[in-house]
Each structure stands twice: as structure tokens, then as C-alpha cells.
Design goal:
By secondary structure, the chain is of the alpha+beta class. The protein is built from 3 helices and 6 strands, in the order ααββββββα. The longest helix is centred in the N-terminal third of the chain and has 17 residues.
């Protein structure tokens, strides 16, 4: 996976004083790097964005936390052309017709599993199919 020159420094800054969240992200990144070797990753102020030709996924720290969410977690966000119905989807919105944004709460590295990777793979295909 392509990273920026300052990627490691930027990641450490993004997760400053949040070692549990950093560990969750590292588990996610390791699997995404295996699954999407041609992707690139960019650390931004509010999220870590994953790109092919277009943005297909992101990882972030919860800003508006629901009270039943774990104290230490990250959000994985991806877009698809249809809504995924699963108890693992914490929030799903349709900002544009037939463009659904899904948010999954990760609180344990074991949640970076084949189900999540399948959704991310679908998101990659969906993003790559855009003009």
C-alpha cells in the first residue's frame, strides 16, 4: 500500500495518547495492506483515508459517540451502492441516491475479519466503478 513520506509520524500524531485505538488501526491497516496492495492511504485531520482511484474507506476516532459504544474504539467507514443490513453496521446513511455510507465500530482486532474485508472489497469495487 502506498503511504506518504510522513505516514508513521502522522499516524502517531493522529492516535496521540490513544494506544488502544492505535492498535485497532494497526490491525485494520495490516489486513487492508494485504487485501488492497494497490491502494494508497492518507492521514488527514479527522480521518485516515484509503484510496484507489477514489476514496473507498476511512478510519476515524468517534466524534459523536453513542452511549452504548465502547470507550476505546475506531470507526471504519465505507460507501456502497446499497444499504448493508447487519447488526455490525452502527450507522448507515444515504447522502445521495444509491450511495450509502456505512460506519462500523471496531473495539477488538478480531473484528477485522472476512465480513468486514468483504464489505471493504465491495466498497473498493464500487469506488473504482465511478466515473
Amino acid at each position: 500500500m502506498k503511504t506518504t513520506e510522513n505516514y508513521l509520524t502522522d499516524i502517531l500524531g493522529f492516535f496521540d495518547e490513544k494506544p488502544a485505538e492505535l492498535a485497532l488501526y494497526e490491525a485494520l491497516f495490516a489486513r487492508m495492506e494485504q487485501t488492497f496492495p494497490d491502494a494508497s492511504v492518507k492521514v488527514q485531520k479527522s480521518q485516515i483515508s484509503f484510496y484507489g482511484r477514489h476514496l473507498f474507506a476511512a478510519a476515524s476516532l468517534p466524534v459523536r459517540r453513542k452511549k452504548d459504544w465502547p470507550k476505546e474504539c475506531i470507526l471504519v467507514t465505507f460507501g456502497l451502492g446499497e444499504r448493508v443490513h447487519s447488526s455490525r453496521i452502527a450507522v448507515a446513511t444515504e447522502p445521495y441516491p444509491q450511495r450509502w455510507t456505512h460506519h462500523v465500530v471496531l473495539s477488538d482486532a478480531s473484528q477485522v475479519d472476512e465480513v468486514l474485508l468483504d464489505w471493504l472489497g465491495q466498497a473498493w469495487e464500487f469506488a473504482e466503478s465511478k466515473r
